[in-house]
Batch of 2 targets.
Target 1
Amino acid sequence: MTIPLDPTITPPGTSRFRDAGGVPADRWRAVRGEETLVATHCCFCGVQCGMYLRVHDGKVFGVEPRDHDINRMRLCPKGLNAYQQVNHPDRLTAPLLRRSRTDDLRPVSWEQALDHAADQIQRVQAAYGRDAFGMLGGASLFSEKTYLVGKFARVALRTRHVDYNGRLCMVSAAGANKLSFGIDRAANPFADILLTDCLLIAGSNVGECFPVMTQYLWGARDRGATLIVVDPRETSIARTADIHVALRPGTDSAFFSSVLHVVVTEGLADEAYVAAHATGWEEVRQAAAEYPPERAAQICGIPAAQITEVARMFATAPKAMAWHARGIEHHTQGVENCLTVINLCVATGNLGRPGAGYGTITGQGNGQGGREHGQKSDMLPGGRSISDPVHRAQVARIWGIDEADLPQAGTSMMEMVHQMGRGEIRGLLGICNNPFVSLPNYAVVKAGYDALDFHAQCDFFLSETSANAHLVLPVTTWAEDDGVMANAEARVVRHRKAQEPLPGVRTDTWVMCELARRLGVGDKFAFTGSEQVFEELRVASRGTVNDYYGITYARLDETGGISWPCPTVDHPGTPRLFEDGQTWHADKKIHMQAVRWHPPADPYDDEYPMTLTTGRTVAHFLSGNQTRRLGGLVEQTPRPWVEVHPSHGYASGDPVTVVTRRGAATFPALVTDAIRPDTVFVPYHWPYPVAANELTIDALDPRSKIPEYKVCACRIQPAAHVTAVPAPPVPPGHESYAATQVSRGDQHPPTSSQGRGTSEP
Amino acid sequence: MMGRTIIIDPGRCIGCQACVSACRECDSHRGKSMIHLDYLDAGHSVASMPTVCMHCEDPLAPCAQVCPAEAILVTPDGVVHDADKSRCIGCGNCVNACPMGVPKIDLKAKLQFKCNLCYDRTSYGLAPMCATVCPTGSIFYGTVEELRAERPNVAVASTFDFGGNLLTTGVAMVVPADRGDVPVPGGVGQPAGPTPGPQPFGSVPTSADNVLGEPL
């Protein structure tokens, strides 16, 4: 951008306001008079920043920074705009029902809606068996509700088919954590980042996906730490990193194995630590030896010298730390990728000390808590296994049921969709997820859901998935109920109810309890609110690895958050794991796992020679059902784009079609040097026909069953015009809230991956 | 440079626009953000930088000096205020006079809007909204000493060179530590060599009649 220095020319951006598309959810106005600040946390990502919601006259109308020690008053644009959801005109306020998908959704009473749902559940289960009715939860629910999803599926539906959207998010890290340590959570708190000497971030666009966590990264660098970023794109944290490893997507385990190999060959491994605390070192070392830097450099498409450089920087630091996120987890070798990072930390003795350790950054607010208490297909509360007879007996006793009535392990979310397509699952209850945007291979997902005899979905906005359902139940936003979430540090934080639910809206807890009553098990679901559920969760987790027994609402109010395990009410919680060098395995050792790299599931050929990778942008969250309705965020980033390297000859704004074996979609090009020439990137928050997930592959990691969102084969070709972005669905009788959608028609890509600059037209 | 002021470090900026969203939350201009957030190197990197009012000290507030309605006032603490709504005629002189491109004009309302360092907050000892929420500390509020306590050895500059015309501001920038104490080149994409620059501004003492609290 070159602007002549001429005082008679008004600089761009000074003659117009990019003012959130007119008015926000509850009308912009300065509120005068009584105002209450309700201390709570953000509803979005796994950092779980503290915030105050401003409440006037019983309505949430604004936000105020809160000096919670996670975020020290800092907030990202999503968090700042989050409050606008609560009284948004698009909110669902009545149950919506239709008998067939050819009809329109029509408002019905709660009584009718719940009776109908119970009838349909019983009809489907009578005709096709109990397992023919499935349930899908979500990790943006409070922990109490995730606990209820698991219990409702096993006790009320008595189906094996329950899973949750954390399956698309955290499960690879979870699998690796369990294998290595026998405990599934980050080993260190965020605050430890400030104490480290070398920080390695693998596959995490921290600046966009966890913006407030950036303060820890910069804080570490202020104190002299080096920063290594492994990412195919030059993200805002990679831009100034000491080393940016811009590897080819899908090659992470080859890279980390090679780094480990260099650590070994250069004598930088902490042999004493490994000998004292780990098993499997010999096998790991041998496997790593298969990836000398020259070979790994070929696989990863990076200079071999960079591998040596990373190994030396990480292994010679007195205290080093690695954090990773979806970038290495969303792969058919997601678990293996995480294991190679763990192996590197263990081999260099970087575990269990202030500033030395390992963490995984959860994507959803309750990405950690949501996977602990039983909504995962193979798990029961307290991180118990549903296949373990001892665990089954314990939970059956807590729930007051016969162990024989407790279903066995089910299948993963994507597998359940495949089963819907095959008619094995005929009915579904969805809570807190939007698979039409978030699952890979949209055509398969749509076909699977369309095949359902009965589909009920709970949501507070009409998502693309809800809009396709038979029954939509309007439930609360996070600000209309109490509950807890566990953030990426496994710190349990307390969310507080800031206002009463909108008229016509019920809590997810109430919905599940009322349905359970209609299914004849009301006595097992006699909960009047979140705290009662939490009390049962505490007991249900007592004595397990994920021990919440010592955590109470009152203690959370006093402390601002407690990290589990917390076995007794006078226990301070456990912010840092492995301080005594012991894990949660029976032998107390770290079980290092040998890993061998394999190519991604989708093969490259002449027709599909390039790589498509997907991810998030800072202004939007997950499937966008929330953020695509908030004017300020729509204005910052109105639409998806395809990020392309200049070597392909496109100019920014050119319509470019990305074609994969699953489909094709057209986006405006954002041409930038900040991406590998062999790779294109599309953000995934938007629905068909501008969905990244029309293109992605539904291949799964065999262990974690996470889909391979981060790599599939593609080609790009010029197109005639870009595809328009559809408006977010709204309930019948509602007008789409036009003022928030002003910029949505924008045909241009954003200026940069973070959005449009404020001076851009 | 003021005592407690905003200090901007573009090297830490991640371009997330939390500052832009936060600015909209201010009760005196809800819905309108006064912050400029630019992606500086589009097509090459994700580099970005926020711009707030620099609260020019010398020459004092060029925007105020050219205001025919004497609507832009400066308080003794050095804060250059946004145009007084009861006086502003929406002429846009301030927009053209500002060397940093900061003031905005609402053409419909015929009013100027500009960052006033969140006077509603800073006058009560709080940090401005943008600096409070900035996830990276790219927008810092405090004294240089407080900044250095958190970030040892940072260098700070508050003098800018617009084609030979020096401008000293109340808001400061973090600059590379090895850069030396020389003015920061002003303007965007300014070509090397002599260019037709803005006319030098005369210096106006703080007792000028557009300073808030002084008799008109």
Note: The radius of gyration of chain A is 25 Å.
Target 2
Amino acid sequence: MSSLVEERAPQTAGRAARLAMLDALGMPLLAILLAFVGGALIIWATSGDFGTVLAAYEGMISGAFIKTRGFSETLVATTPYIFLGLGLAIGFKAGLFNIGAEGQFYIGAISAVWAGIVFTGLPAILHLPIVMLAGALGGALWAGIPGFLKARTGAHEVITTMMMNYIAFRLTEFLVSVPLRDTLSSAVQTLRVSPNAELWSLWQIPQRLSDRLNALAVAIFFAALALALARWFVARGDMATRLTLSRRRVVVGGTGLAVGALAFFGLPALTQVWWPFSDQYDRLHIGIVIALAAAAAVWWLMYKTTLGFEMRTVGANPSAARYAGINISRNILITMALSGALAGIAGTIEVLGVSICRCLPLFFSSGYGFDSIALALLAKNNPIGIVGGAFLFGAMRNGADLMELNSGVSKYVISLIQGLVLLFVAAPSMVRYLLRMRAARKIEEEAPLTRGWG
Amino acid sequence: MALASPPIASVRQTHGEATTTLQATGITKRFPGVLANDRVDFDLRQSEIHGLLGENGAGKTTLMNILYGLYQPDEGTIFLGGQPTQITSPHDAIAQGIGMVHQHFMLVPPLTVTENIILGQESLQPATRVLGRLSALDRRGAAARIRELSHQYGLDVDPDAYIKDLPVGAQQRVEIVKALYRRAEILILDEPTAVLTPQEADELFVIMQSLVRQGKSIIFITHKLREMFAVTDRISVMRGGKMVGTTTPKQATSEMLAEMMVGRKVILQIDKAPAHPGAVILRVDNLQAQDDRHAMTVHDASFEVREGEILGIAGVQGNGQRELVEALTGLRHVVAGKVELLSQDITHATPRAITELGVGHVPEDRHKHGLVLTFPVRDNLVLCTYYESPFARGLVINAAAIENEAQKLVKEFDIRTPSTDTLAGSLSGGNQQKVIVARELDRPVKLLIANQPTRGLDVGSIEFIHRRIVEARDRRTAVLLVSAELDEIMTLSDRIAVMYKGRILDTLAASDATREQLGLLMAGVKGGAHV
């Protein structure tokens, strides 16, 4: 009722903040809990035996965390979820419902493989960034087409990205089985990428770091990280007033340099002496570190830059964005390209770090891109939430096999539980009803996911 | 069926000579965190027009929604004709003889007047009644009754006309007939004059008086003091969920009512020195623009605004004002004509280019264009300048600078907010509007375009915003003020242009213009002839 809004006194800040906090954290957790309860009911109903429920969940937990390489495989599955979730979250925040992540993932993978094959003899410090860039560009281009169509003609991105998925699947199949095919292999798959384009598994690190150039690459990564952290630290209120600008620059630069130097000289030596990862069958790779850095970068982009401000404004209120002078067409293009680039990197990492043949096989089954829609919604498009949600989804995906083995429950129950999570997240009022909770009245900063088809 | 005669007995009450037909005592209604109605007493006598006055958020809509059955009171009793009763739904309210004419009409444009009126209460042709829900409608009988009712109460309504072809005033009469058709004895009119010209409002008052003469009773909600004096028998004022008091037009003065409404002394007239117009800032030549359905709603509009003056554009809502303002600010495509700002052609410039040339824009719809409700107050205060120094350096936002600016503006413009981190959507309308005005006036603007800058605001906020607009003028800013509130136009403007059906019909000096003259122009009558 309009009068409800009209005749409401502003809530006190503290109470509102607490409610917002509870809603931001509590609702997703409740949704997860309810989804698992729902999953249990379905397993119980289909098997007629409550013991099966326990066996299934016990198998899932064991498969995801306890069995040999269980935990590291969970992290392996978490990595692409993080990238894809971030990509979708950027789109959702800006009001674009990109459901073509799966296709962008494939195009990213094939672009990266191509760049991994055609360039040879490059050192890893060059080749690895090149393949990542190729994957990102492939995904960006693929998502950019629907972005362009939307900006130009108003074609709805849900339709176009969905259709672009099918084109991506068939195009990848063609590229794998004709131009990039490894004709010597009996399986239909692409050529193997150059070893320097591979993403390092963790057990390989000591060996990889013995190469000075690789050590330099790692040092640059850590130096950049330290620089960003130091910059954030000195910009905080207290420090900002205590130190002059030039003094702050010295502190920031010094920290970056010191950490870089320490990493360059220290890490190779350290890893020779002590390194916990030695299992050669462990597929855990450095992608997880890059993914965490990406989550931080996306958070920074969304909340600390003018571009992020524009994207959020367009998502929250396109009319106000236009009024404020924001170029909406340009914003749609950039958002879609960024969203696709992150999906493309997910594909890149999957094929260069996880695929056993370090190539793209014809039957490269993923499904990551579709799951990530539920993931981004669950995380309410919050980068930190994405990391947590990706871990949950990774664990479920990884635990599914042992669950099926131990209890005989089909592993597709996982999709069912994910579906329930999505259902409960998308309908918080239903959760409230189920749990008899009183609605916390507030206005959410959330991109509307049900906007007209115009 | 609700067609039975409503149970209103004539029970003489203790006070005075008149009969009380509806009485509410001790009505309390709580919403989470808000006491919307606090032990409110209200009574309506037979054949009277009882005005209900109050600012937004005073609780008058809640009270009316309770009387109309949309809400149930937490405490308190409603008496109809002396008998305690419960009104459980709008349907129930109608059955008990209470009708409501909402501010936003509840009519279906592609249907005829008759169809709209009988909607939900269709009378059927007796011969076909056996067919149940498939029986034929008795349109002719209904139309006859509508004619009879409109004749009886002096309501000019053609039963066969289509709603979409009717002007707003006629649509309102249809709403009234709809209530009468349902045998309403008590009519609640919620801000009925908001969409009318002064002459149409006067016509409505004649109808209202004719209704009460024939035994109906009316609750009349408005925030315009003038109308209270024009038409009511008694006036009740609400503030902060409480009933402040009841008086009569004879005993009350405008100042007194305003004070009851706001709780403190209010200056109704803005002190305004004569304008000293300077160079032309904005020149509009033969501007043409279309609305969203590609109908031409701005025809050959030409005018200019000079520095240090306020040009008011008067007109009934929906005469092309919105499209005009959007065309001037780059939000709408200009079909033909020319817009010049400081001798620079901005006809096809982007909104950002126009902003950067020094135009401030207070948009008509603060929720749609003016604010991002889900963003904090802080971000809304830099919505148009977030990318400029010092708020950003290159791509990176300087949160501290934005916070400083926000703190400064919150203090300077008296924005009542718990913090700069509070979401704009949780502020009251007046404070939301202050956020916009603060943002648009803080820049060194050469032209301020304010479209309906005080719509729906409380008296205190209106006073504040009016003062700021006049101050901007005194700082040599050119001001284009668009408003459907004639009082606002007459209070603030130095010159007044009247817009009718997309044309600027005439431009008058504010000092010479009379309400009657402007009212005629707003209705499209110029020099004695209808345009």
Note: Confidence is low (pLDDT under 50) at residues 1-13, 439-454 of chain A.
